[in-house]
Structure formats: C-alpha cells, structure tokens
TrEMBL record:
Keywords from the UniProt entry: Oxidoreductase
Superkingdom of this protein's organism: Bacteria
Family statement: Belongs to the aldehyde dehydrogenase family.
Chain ranges of the Aldehyde dehydrogenase domain: 27-482
Protein name stated in the entry: Succinate semialdehyde dehydrogenase
Entry GO terms, CC: cytosol
Classification of source organism: Bacteria, Pseudomonadati, Pseudomonadota, Gammaproteobacteria, Alteromonadales
Coiled coil: none
C-alpha cells in the first residue's frame, strides 16, 4: 500500500498504513483514505480494520497483561521514558503528520506532541508511587493492609482534535499502572496514533501491551471495546452524546468507565481585571485549534464597566489572526475538521443573529477553502441563544454582558456542561467566591491555558467523570484490594 506522495518527513517510516496489534502491523482487505482538511488532498491510504481486528487487539492485551503487570514500576518506567525520548526526538515529523491529518497550525501540533509526551514522562515516575496502606485492626489478632493493583485490560476511543495527546494522556497512566491498552482513534486522524505505535515498538514496549486499531466502523469497533468481557476499563474522550451511549454499552459488563466529554466554558471579565491580560487569555483560550478544543472559551461574559474597552481590544487582537493551511508559516487559524463542522458553526451563528446577536467581525466562511471559517466575534448575545447554549467547537466568540458577580455566576453555571471555566479579576474576595461558586472541574484564574500533565484534567455534570494527568490520573487504572490478616495472636 503506497502513500500518495512524499509528506516531507525526515523519517517517512513513521507513516504506517496498518493497525498495530500484538506487535505486528495488520493488513485488512478494506482501505481508508486519510485527507488533509486544509485542501481535502489525500495524505495516506490505510488498512480499514473492523470488529475482527478489534477482538484480536483485546486478546493481545489480555494475553500480555500478566507479563506487563509483573514488571516492576522501574522496568515500566524505563520503557516509557524511552518512548517519551523518541516522541520528542521525532517531534517535528509527528507534528507534520498531525497537521496534515487534523489541520492545526504546525506550532500548535508541535505543542501537542510535547504535551502528549509529557504524560509519558509524568506517569513513568507516578507509577513508582502507587502506595498502599496499613490500617490499625479492630482487634489484636488482625492486621488490615490495603494494596493497589492494575484494573486489567484498558480499552479507549479518542477524538480527532488532539490525535496524539488524547491517546498519550490515557495510555501513559494505564501502562504505568500495569495495565495493557487498546485504542481505536478517530477515523479522520489515524496516522498520529499509528506513529505513536511505531515509536512504542522502537522504545521496547512489548508486543500486545499497546495496540492501535484504525477503521471507520466506529459503532462495531466500539461495541467490542465497551462490551468485551476481557476489557476491565473503558475510557472515552469525545462528545457528550456519544459518551452517554458508550456508558450504556459498558453497563452490560459493569466496566469501569472514565469520560472526558463536551464543554461550554465561560470566560468572565470583571471590572477590576487586567484587560490586556484578559484579551490575550481569551484569544488563546478561544482560538486554539480553530476553537476545536473541549476547553475552548465558549461564552465571554464581560462586566458592564469594561465591556467597551474589552470588546475594542479583543476585536483588534482577533483581527490579527491569520487563517490558512497549518503547514504554512505565520498561520494562527487552520481549517476546521470538515465542511460539515463549518456548516454546524454557521448555523449556530445564523440562528443567534436571527435572535438578536450582532456580528462584530467575521461570520463568513471566507476564501481560504471549504473547511475554513473566519475568526468571528458576536456581540449582544444572551445566554438563551443557540451560540451560548451549544458547544460551538469553532472560531466564534459570543460576547455577553453582566452587571453583578451573582449574575455572572448564574449565567456561567446555566449549562449542563461543567468542564473548564475562566475568569479575570484581581480582588482576592472575588477570586475565592467565584472560583468556589463555578460548577466546573477546572477553573483558570487570570489564565487562559490550563492543561498540563501535572494537573487533574476533567469535568463534572455532563462533561464527564474521572481525571487524566496528575497523581489523580493513576487512580482510574488501579483497583484497591483490602487484605485482612487474622489469627495473628497465636
Ligand atoms: N473532555 C475532553 O478532554 C475532550 C477532549 C477532546 C474532545 N472532546 C469532545 O469531543 C467532541 C469533539 O470530538 P469528536 O467530534 O471526535 O467527538 P465524537 O464523540 O463524535 O467522536 C469521538 C470518538 O468516538 C467515535 N465514535 C463516534 N460515535 C461512536 C459510536 N456510536 N460508537 C463508538 N465510537 C463512536 C468517533 O469515531 C471518535 O473516535 C467535542 O464535544 C469535544 O468537547 C472532549
Ligand atoms: O480538546 C480537548 C483537550 O483535552 C484540550 S487540551 O489540549 O487538553 O487543553
């Protein structure tokens, strides 16, 4: 199976065309073409795996679980460190592959590779700190001991918007805990996952420990990963509607689940905020990945006293954003993942304008290509409008105004989502009251970029459950076992 053209890589062998199962590259009869959303050009043709290959991957993970969990944390850490080093040594190629299949600007793609690799580095060390407990027994003849053990085979399904980091954030914790791993990445972005598998193999991660099955039968492959009796834990990153259906599928075998789902992040600017800092924070939080991240600012709430200044400065900053092919220098806004995604955003804008919102700038597809949408700002937005109630997942900033702190909190919390929230203020009383009142798993305070390997990433309400990254991220892949030792008085 030949790739259509030279992709401009230093190491072209990082482009793999087959699923990676039990340490082998698996060819399937059907084929799938990966396209570049910047211009819909063909990037690569890959084998289109399905249910049978997914079942093979689960078997491989099951067959190697005892071997992998029997290794010491130090042995696992050494191999994970090798993988981290290889990811960073190949950062440029991995970023180029990522941009070609997902669209984000090359600089952001390089950042994603470093972000994903950071989880390997972080959990290589965290795996050495899986501590247990001894607890004073209820009587002199007994001793209580608590140990932690790997949950077992972990299956995962990941989205297209971070095709490297969303896998690394899960696999790193799972492998460090002693679990084995199967991932089915998004149909649109398989190449990043397969390149990760190639580097895992080069790092010495044993066959069967990390498996990648790529194919467009999402439902069929998902059924295996959510219902196979040998899968102990299912972890999903994606939209809330799909997450709900997958949770239900996992119920048939009472699997452990963790869900990283949709968001509707408020970005609140108070009268005492540093306006220039707030403008920069809103810019990066909103327009990263062309607004296609789960923690992107989705509503900008500005207190009336600074509304005019903020809107003027924010508009000037957004006007500086350059839209185009993510491989080209100086591009800040790449394409959206598909024309369907563009149309979805255009519909949200049109519905909200019809309901009274005003276009401050953008609001059109522009002439960069069919998968592009101009960086857009809407004013006069109210929280009942479609643009405020839905996860936009595109480069549109709805600006709402408020008078009081209580009003801002009420608007911010008026959503079924609870992933990330942001606010800019300087009064310490405001900061503590608002931070505690916001119903979100993560809150950026005078900061627009909050994701890193050391922090517990995750949401509440219908944004999901569980945490990824930080010391808490390991808990999702560990079982607690209670040992009660009796007869010790004889
Ligand atoms: N919380 C987080 O960390 C996080 C991170 C990234 C994306 N997301 C969310 O993901 C969404 C965007 O990503 P998306 O469009 O890929 O989401 P999606 O839910 O449509 O798809 C996510 C993954 O699930 C697969 N899938 C879709 N339907 C399925 C089914 N019925 N059975 C099995 N698998 C199925 C897709 O192929 C993809 O691999 C947004 O809502 C975003 O907020 C959340
Ligand atoms: O889109 C979801 C990602 O989790 C965003 S981040 O890179 O982790 O902030």
């Amino acid at each position: 199976m030949q790739n259509p053209k030279d992709l401009g890589l230093k190491d072209s062998s990082l482009v793999k065309n087959f699923s990676y199962i039990n340490g082998s590259w698996h060819s399937s009869d059907a084929q799938l073409t990966v396209t570049n959303p910047a211009d819909n050009s063909d990037v690569a043709t890959i084998s289109n795996a399905g249910v049978a290959e997914t079942e093979l991957a689960v078997k491989a993970a099951k067959d190697t679980l005892k071997m992998w969990s029997a290794k010491s944390a130090n042995e696992r850490a050494t191999l994970m460190r090798n993988w981290f080093n290889l990811m960073m040594e190949n950062q440029d190629d991995l970023a180029r592959i990522l941009t070609m299949e997902q669209g984000k600007p090359l600089a952001e793609a390089k950042g994603e590779i470093a972000y994903g690799a950071a989880f390997l580095e972080w959990f290589a060390e965290e795996g050495k700190r899986v501590y247990g407990d001894t607890i004073p027994g209820p009587s002199g003849d007994k001793r209580i001991v608590v140990i932690k053990q790997p949950v077992g085979v972990v299956a995962s399904i990941t989205p297209w918007n971070f095709p490297n980091a969303m896998i690394a954030r899960k696999a790193a914790a799972a492998l460090a805990a002693g679990c084995t791993f199967v991932v089915r990445p998004a149909t649109q972005t398989p190449l990043s996952a397969l390149a990760m598998a190639e580097l895992a193999e080069r790092a010495g991660i044993p066959a069967g420990v990390f498996n990648v099955v790529v194919g467009d039968d999402a439902r069929g492959m998902g059924k295996v990963l959510t219902q196979h009796p040998d899968v102990a834990k299912f972890t999903f990153t994606g939209s809330t509607p799909v997450g709900k259906s997958l949770i239900a599928q996992c119920a048939t075998t009472v699997k452990k689940v963790s869900m990283e789902l949709g968001g509707n992040a408020p970005f609140i600017v108070f009268n005492d905020a540093d306006i220039d800092a707030a403008v920069q924070g809103a810019l990066v939080s909103k327009y990263r990945n062309a607004g296609q991240t789960c923690v992107c600012t989705n509503r900008i709430l500005v207190q009336s006293g600074v509304h005019e200044e903020f809107t003027k400065k924010f508009s000037a900053a957004v006007a500086q954003l350059n839209i185009g092919n993510g491989l080209h220098d100086g591009i800040n806004i790449g394409p959206m993942i598909s024309n369907t995604a563009v149309n979805d955003v255009a519909t949200l804008v049109a519905d909200s304008v019809a309901a009274g919102a005003k276009i401050v700038m953008g609001g059109q597809q522009g002439d960069a290509g069919e998968n592009f949408y101009q960086p857009t700002i809407l004013s006069h937005v109210t929280n009942d409008m479609a643009i405020a109630q839905n996860e936009i997942f595109g480069p549109v900033s709805p600006i709402l105004t408020f008078e009081t702190e209580a009003e801002a909190i009420a608007i911010a919390n008026d959503t079924e989502f609870g992933l990330a929230a942001y606010f800019y203020a300087r009064d310490i009383g405001t900061i503590w009251r608002v931070a505690e009142a916001l119903e979100y798993g993560m809150v950026g305070i005078n900061e627009g970029i909050i994701s890193n390997a050391a922090a517990p990433f995750g949401g509440i309400k219908q944004s999901g459950s569980g945490r990824e990254g930080s010391k808490y991220g390991l808990d999702d892949f560990l079982e607690i076992k209670y040992l009660c030792m009796g007869g010790l008085d004889k």
